[in-house]
Every structure is written in C-alpha cells, then in structure tokens.
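User: My instructor asked us to take a sequence, write out its structure as tokens, and then describe one feature of it. I'm not sure where to start. Here is the sequence I was given:
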Amino acid sequence: MTNPVPQTMGQQFGRRSWAEPWKIKMVEPLRVIGREERVKALDESGYNTFLLKSEDVYIDLLTDSGTSAMSDRQWAGMMLGDEAYAGSRNFYNLESAVQAHYGYKHVLPTHQGRGAEHLISRAGIKRGQYVPGNMYFTTTRLHQELAGGIFVDVIIDEAHDPQSMHPFKGDIDLDKLEALVKREGAEQIAYVSLAGTVNMAGGQPVSMANLKALRGLCDRHGIKIFLDATRMVENAFFIQEREPGYAGKPIADILKEFCGYTDGAWMSAKKDNLVNIGGWLAVNDWELFEELRNLVVVYEGLHTYGGLAGRDMEAMAIGIAESVKDDHVRARIGQVRYLGELLTDWNIPIVQPVGGHAIFLDARRFYPHIPQVQFPAQTLAAELYLDSGIRSMERGIASAGRNPKTGDHYYPKLELTRLTIPRRVYTQAHMDVVAESVKAVYDGRERTRGLEMVYEPRYLRFFQARFKRL
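Assistant: Let's start with the prediction itself. The structure tokens for your sequence are:
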C-alpha cells in the first residue's frame, strides 16, 4: 500500500491559505525602545505622532504615502535614469504608462500629489466657485480654498456612519449635487472633485454605476469631473469584488474604464504607484493642458520632469505596471483585511466595511467619555505609541481644521485613528502585534484622558500641532 500524499495544514482544516506574491530579498532591522523612552519621545513631540523621530518608532503605520517597498525591477530602473533637464526618456516612459493604464491623453509629472492638486486648483477654479466632492481630503480642500474655491461635501450619508455596511460608501449623492447646481447655477461649479477611494471615510470605494450616473448629470450641465486617482487601483478591486458584471474583469481593465468617465486626474504616486516620491497630473482637454503645462514650469519644473529626477520617473513607470496586477492588489488589501478581522473578532470598534489602505479605529466609540473637543482620535494615536511603539495618525477634529470665516473647529461626524498599511513592507506577524496592541489599549480605555491643543499652525494643523495631556 502506497503512502497517501501529505496534506497541508490548510487542506486538513478545509481551507486554503494565501501568501504575498513576492519574496523578501533585503531587510531593514527594526528597533524597539522601552516604555520610558517612548514616554519621553511622545512628550517631546507634543503628543503628535507626525513629530516623532522615525528611529523611535517600531511599526510605522502613520501613512502609506511614500513608505512602500519598491521591487527589484524598480530599483533596476533607477539605474537607467536619464537626468537630462529637458526631454528625459524616463518622462516618455512615464507618459506611456499613464496613457496605457489610466487612459488620459496629456500627462505632466509633479514632485508629488500635492503639486498636482495645486496646479489643477489654480487652473480649474475661479474665485467664488463651488467644488463639490465625495468628502474632503485635507490637502485637496486647502488647495481648492487657496484658489478661491468653496468645497461642498456631496457624499452619500452612509459615508458618515462607521457602522454602515454599504458596499460603496464613497458614492456621490446625486440629489445633493443636483440641488447645489440648481441653487448656485452650473457656471458656479468649478468641477466635481471625485476621490476613489475616499480616505477620510475609511478608504471606501466609489461604484462604477454611480460614476456613470454622475457623468450623465455633469454632461447635462456642462461640468467636468476630475479624479483623485491616488488609490484608484484599490477602488477597482472593490468594483471587481462587489459590483455586478465585473467579477471576471481584470483590475487593469476596470481602472481604465473608470478613468474613461472622467476628464482628468491627479495622482500621488507615493501610494498606488509604489514609489517613494512623485506624482502626476493628466487631462484630456488640450487647452487646459496648455495652461497646466505652463504652470508646471512656474511651480514644479519643466514639463518633462516636474520636480523629479529621471530615475524617479522610471521607477514610477514600472510601478504603475506592477500596481495593476490582480495578485498584487489582492495581497495588498488582504493584509489590511486580516488586521481588520482580528480587531472585529475582539469587538473593537472600527469603520466597516474594511477599506483598501488602512484600518480606521472609531475613536468616538473607543473613548465615549472623551468629548470631541479633547481630540479622542489624537489621544488614541498617542496611547498606541505608548503601548508598543506603533505609530498611527489622527483623522478627526484635528485633521478637519477650522472654518476660515468663523474660526471655529470643524466637527466631523467621523473621529478616526488610522492604521495605514504600507505596500509590500510588513508581514502578517507584524499585523498580529498591531492587533494585540490595539486590544491592550482598548482594554485600558476607561482610564484614558483626552488632550488639549497648545500649538496650532495656520494651515494643515494636524501635521505640526502640539498637544498636552489633560
């Protein structure tokens, strides 16, 4: 009698495990400092995790912006940098990659997404015009306001409810948008600012059906749609998974179809495009492109480098092609979901459903005894660092800022602490450590006190504000 084929652990228990579609070739040692050192570091940083030194952080979940690991092919591409001031061949490789995978006609590189936001705001907004969007993002809204625009949130109501299981909480409420157009007039709408996915809502996606309907509404009124494509690859995954008719369609095809319903896009390539620096701006209209191409010379550099080295553009072009691979996106979101499932199993309050790039802890339900004016999400980020050296960030009242007319705090319905997962950086074991730290902080939540802001910058205060314990 022959021996049977040995079973794997997964087969024995009736399941099949998944693994990351890459192997580790180089490692960066991590340093863990003791609690007393963490207390000192947090005090010196004014309880703001942005002001901590990287060397004092164990697992860094502050952001997925520029923190991903590049592939061996990207590093090889860095050696092929054409550092000519004008007409670098790496620009043309980047241009071709954007045109092939996002579908836009005209492409400009920028030093990062913020540069692209600035350019489209200056070129696309007249002072006093309204900019409706599916929830604000901090830097986007600031650039729109600095250009004289007035942001209006027209996202569906479910986006403001962290417990809602709506599959596309990033959708635009077409009735809200139609009401704005009727009230102010189509000529007073600069453009629709559409984000996919919606960061401040918890990484929630926009459906293809909603965008098609939005395109029809905007065409009737002569309004353009510009897309924040920063995490659009992740949005395409959720369409593939949740929307009828897309289950068998590749991520790359869904991405290109989605972009095809918009008039242009800006990109922080430090997210989906898998590079440590860089961005781009792409539009279909030639006259608008001419204006943008002139502005990029003023603020970023010549239109064929936009503030980037040739090697950075080459790494970006390769990263774009890698980012749309289905196995990459499944593994990327799978790691985020793994952490979310651990926390859900322990009844820890998070935004549901789990989004594409991060787990968002619901600080309101975490600390019901801490009023919003005492910064519960900022408090939670500080407590996580004290417990284990894990760095996260606030997405609540501190990020929302103040009303420029009244000077009062904005009080967002969502008060969240973001655990942002860099791409291709951490292992499943790191996610276990993170989950256990969150649980430890949750178990001690009743003893936690809030914070008071003692220093507040004028713009984007959450980056540099300082706090003290109440």
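For the description part of your assignment, you could build on this observation: The longest helix spans residues 326-345. Try explaining in your own words what that tells you about the chain.
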